């Protein structure tokens, strides 16, 4: 009986805002029977401009909140928070399944034919020890040149739901065009917000390489890999939900509930009866 009750517990997912919904989308597809609780920390966004100390403190606070809901697993659906806080969280909660975001450098290195990979990420992620150690190790092993690009301001645009605006496109041009000019044939989406503007990235690729095939530039999004990892760990610990239906998504935010609802409807295409949003002070 105890094992069954544990398997019915929720999976907590958190991000600095709506970006983690790109990961949540993959989790819902892979694990439709799981009860999910999404925490959008929009009131403290963007994470990418904050110090590791602040991010660790904030991540611990979010984890403590999610644990009041007796979660069985937690997904840090934020590259910046993962780089800063995943080690601390695992030390604090050793019995809890905790999955963070990987920057996608390994699959990028495997797919790149030009041996030049562009990495789009926040300033904080690119400055983290975790990222730099992995980049240096893979550069040595694969002879791939990883070109890092901090995308200042891009998360804010996505948080404002400006996924098609001229201002957002201009930022994407500023960050992506130089990577293409340096020979990058693979672009790592090193922030969970960025899959939501993949269409703009492809537009900029087409502008800069009008004669190239549509798939000439590979975009690396690790959200699906995270969902598969979650499935594997839940299965190994006999914690997969036995539900045949898809539970209502429970979502909470430290920002605007209306903004989160808009994101759920337009980014995940959810109906109003498929989610419940609450505001946190």
UniProtKB/TrEMBL annotation:
NCBIfam families: glut_race (TIGR00067)
PANTHER family documented for this protein: GLUTAMATE RACEMASE
UniProt keyword terms in alphabetical order: Cell shape, Cell wall biogenesis/degradation, Isomerase, Peptidoglycan synthesis
Name of the molecule in the record: Glutamate racemase
Catalytic activity: L-glutamate = D-glutamate
Its biological purpose: Provides the (R)-glutamate required for cell wall biosynthesis.
Family statement drawn from the similarity comment of this UniProt entry: Belongs to the aspartate/glutamate racemases family.
Chain residues that bind substrate: 15-16, 47-48, 79-80, 192-193
Source species of the chain: Undibacterium piscinae
GO MF assignments: glutamate racemase activity
EC number(s) recorded for this UniProt protein: 5.1.1.3
Any GO BP: cell wall organization
Highest taxon in the source lineage: Bacteria
Catalytic residue list: 78 (proton donor/acceptor), 191 (proton donor/acceptor)
SUPFAM superfamilies the UniProt entry points to: Aspartate/glutamate racemase
Pathway: Cell wall biogenesis; peptidoglycan biosynthesis
Taxonomy of the source species: Bacteria, Pseudomonadati, Pseudomonadota, Betaproteobacteria, Burkholderiales
């Amino acid at each position: 009986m105890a094992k069954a009750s544990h398997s019915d517990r929720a999976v907590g997912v958190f991000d600095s805002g709506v970006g983690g919904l790109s990961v949540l989308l993959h989790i819902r597809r892979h694990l439709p029977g799981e009860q999910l609780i999404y925490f959008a920390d929009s009131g403290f966004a963007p994470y990418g401009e904050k110090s590791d100390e602040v991010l660790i403190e904030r991540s611990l606070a979010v984890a403590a909140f999610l644990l009041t809901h007796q979660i069985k697993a937690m997904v840090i659906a934020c590259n910046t928070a993962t780089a800063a806080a995943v080690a601390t969280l695992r030390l604090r909660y050793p019995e809890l399944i905790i999955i963070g975001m990987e920057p996608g450098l390994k699959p990028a290195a495997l797919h790149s034919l030009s041996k030049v990979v562009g990495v789009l990420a926040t300033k904080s992620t690119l400055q983290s020890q975790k990222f730099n150690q992995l980049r240096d190790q893979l550069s040595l092993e694969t002879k791939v040149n990883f070109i890092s690009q901090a995308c200042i301001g891009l998360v804010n645009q996505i948080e404002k739901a400006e996924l098609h605006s001229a201002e957002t496109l201009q930022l994407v041009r500023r960050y992506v065009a130089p990577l293409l000019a340096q020979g990058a044939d693979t672009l790592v989406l090193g922030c969970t917000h960025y899959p939501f503007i993949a269409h703009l990235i492809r537009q900029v690729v087409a502008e800069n390489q009008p004669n190239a095939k549509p798939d000439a530039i590979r975009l690396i999004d690790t959200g699906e890999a995270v969902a598969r990892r979650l499935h594997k760990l839940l299965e190994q610990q006999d914690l997969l939900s036995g539900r045949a239906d898809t539970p209502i998504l429970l979502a909470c935010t430290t920002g605007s509930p209306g903004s989160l609802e808009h994101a759920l409807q337009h980014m995940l295409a959810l109906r109003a009866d498929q989610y419940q949003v609450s505001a946190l002070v």
